[in-house]
Structure formats: structure tokens, C-alpha cells
Design a protein that fits this description.
The protein has 99 residues and is mainly beta. 9% of the residues lie in helices and 40% in strands. The protein starts with 10 loop residues before the first strand and ends with a strand.
């Protein structure tokens, strides 16, 4: 389900958005909603300017990919060992849990 996720630092534009976003997290929830999102990003190029400018989105909302973030062996191992092997996730009392 989470195979082939974009690495941290990737730059994308989502559907119906004019501004680009830089991916700063993967498999996250927002504090306002009990929803698991594929990504969280911040406006590019300015980055974080406050907690109110985090944008949560899923891979099907990506309209254009501008840059694939940095990947070294540690990132590739994380992708292979963790992200590629995660099943369906839910939100439980202790946060995100695997079903």
C-alpha cells in the first residue's frame, strides 16, 4: 500500500494548487482530523513559517513531480524494510497502528 513513496525533500504540485510543496513527512495524521495521509508538505521555496502552513495530501492528489528528494542507502533501507511492508493502517488510541 505504501510502496514507492516519494522521499523527504521531493517537490510536487497537487491538483488544483498553484504553489509547489516540499514533502517533509510520510504516513502522517493532522491534529484536526483522524485521517492518515500519505504526505505532509510545506510551501516551496520558503518552507516552514508556522504550524498553520502544513499541507496534508495523498499520492492521488499529486498533479506534477518537480524533484525527487535525496536518497542514500539509509533512506532506501527504510523504504524497503518499513514502508514497503506496511499493510493497512488505522488510527488508534496510541496514534497510527497497523491493522
Amino acid at each position: 500500500m505504501y510502496k514507492n513513496m516519494l522521499p523527504i525533500g521531493s517537490i510536487v504540485r497537487t491538483v488544483d494548487a498553484e504553489r509547489r510543496l516540499m514533502v517533509i513527512g510520510r504516513i502522517v495524521t493532522s491534529e484536526e482530523k483522524d485521517i492518515i495521509y500519505d504526505y505532509v508538505g510545506v510551501p516551496y521555496p520558503e518552507g516552514v513559517s508556522g504550524s498553520d502552513n502544513f499541507y496534508f495530501f495523498n499520492r492521488d492528489q499529486i498533479a506534477e513531480l518537480f524533484f525527487i528528494g535525496f536518497q542514500d542507502q539509509e533512506a532506501l533501507d527504510f523504504q524497503k524494510e518499513i514502508l514497503d511492508n506496511i499493510g493497512e493502517l488505522t488510527i488508534g488510541e496510541d496514534g497510527i497502528e497497523e491493522k
